[in-house]
Amino acid sequence: MLDTATPPAQSSAEGDDAAAVAAAKGAAHAALKLEKRLVRQVAQAIGDFGLIEDGDKVMVCVSGGKDSYGLLDVLHKLQQRNGHRFELVAVNLDQKQPGFPAHVLPDYLAKVGVPFHIETQDTYSVVKEHIPEGKTMCSLCSRLRRGILYRVADELGCTKIALGHHRDDMLQTFFLNMFFGGKLKGMPPKVQSDRGDHLIIRPLAYVAESDLTRWAEIQQFPIIPCSLCGNQENLQRKQIGQMLRDWQQLYPGRIENMAVALRNLVPSHFMDPRQFDFKGLVPNGVQDADGDKAFDAEEFPAQAVGMLGGLPLMPR
Fold first, then answer.
1. Primary place of residence (predicted)?
2. Is residue 52 classed as helix, strand or coil in its secondary structure?
3. What pLDDT does residue 95 have?
4. What is the pTM of this model?
5. Residues 103-124: tens digit of each pLDDT
6. Which letter, b or e, does each residue of 99-120 get, where b requires 16 or more Cβ atoms within 10 Å of its Cβ?
7. Which residues fall in the annotated binding site for [4Fe-4S] cluster?
8. I want to staple 116 with a disulfide (CB 3.0 to 4.6 A). Which of 90, 101, 130, 231 is the partner?
9. Start-to-end CA span in the chain (Å)
10. Residues 136-170 as b or e (16 or more Cβ within 10 Å = b)
11. Which residues are annotated as a binding site?
12. b/e per residue, 77-97, with b = 16+ CB within 10 A?
């Protein structure tokens, strides 16, 4: 009787190949799903807040970090899908940090086919000259960088300046202002510059940092760490970021609900007379869903499921 069984070694090899194929298909599906979510969320933010209009020339500030790479990548995809109704120009400020790999961004931008401008200004020497050793350099560096980028935007004829701040950055800013600044103030998706002569936009307003981290890994962006000040970190922002991550781990969905809360303000239920006319308030006989229920306990759903820009918050 003939033995028709597959030799063990061959069977094992075929099994490994099948597993590898299945894993590759699964990874490709997950990557496509993530790409669709990123594009959808950025498009939703653009529509909700009027971030980009036909004919705009958008300057995308690219630092070499995952967030700005992700922003440029998604905007480029949207531009191509929408028939190039707006222009993109990627701008990087080479601040002449020692060891900065100046070739990385030009090589990448040329490869992906996005027009770009590299502005070279030795702000590193200025910062080192004016900031004592051991002190944080971020504040002065930020002011110098901002002024230079505003000038470049004018020279390039850009109508909008796009920054790579994401949903988690916006929540961190809100809590930083509340805990340390004594004000309820966030990071808006669209705002005038401090001089009033530029429009700053944040198309990643609905995007989770974890998604940008994963997308950077999938796309293999050539990440450039900030080494100007030895990777100094804003300790307060770091603490807030960890607090949010801890909350999310203990209570999945909390970050999403807090992000929704930034879009659902009830001025009459704060204590700022500049935002609501408390002195002029009188009973008007009209029912109000936000009116006070003084003797009722507040009730909240055990696991809130809200909507962010028309998108389901959970599951993702």
1. cytoplasm
2. coil
3. 84
4. 0.83
5. 999 999 999 999 999 999 887 7
6. ebeeeebeebbeeeebebeebe
7. 138, 141, 229
8. 90
9. 56
10. ebbebbeebbbebbbebbeeeebbbbbbbbbbbbb
11. 138, 141, 229
12. ebbeeeeeebbbbbbbbbbeb
Tokens in use for 184?
Answer: 């309820």
Closest listed residue to residue 64, CA positions, set 84, 37, 93: 93
Residue type, 179: F
Return d(Cα 44, Cα 30) in angstroms, integer: 21
- Coil/strand/helix, residue 269: helix
Name 125's Cβ contacts closer than 8 Å, sequence gap at least 6: 96
Identify the CA nearest to 308 among candidates 75, 40, 68, 67. Answer: 40
* Token digits of residue 118: 């590299």
CB 152 within 8 A of CB 121: no
- Asked if 123 contacts 144 with a C-beta cutoff of 8 angstroms, the reply is yes
- Residues 216-238 have a mean pLDDT of 77
Question: In what order do the strands lie in the sheet containing 199-201?
Answer: 116-120, 87-94, 57-61, 160-162, 199-201, 190-192
Residue pair 214/166 in contact by the 8 Å Cβ criterion? no
The pair of three-digit structure tokens given for residue 25, joined into one six-digit string: 């298909």
Q: Helix or strand or coil: residue 57?
A: strand
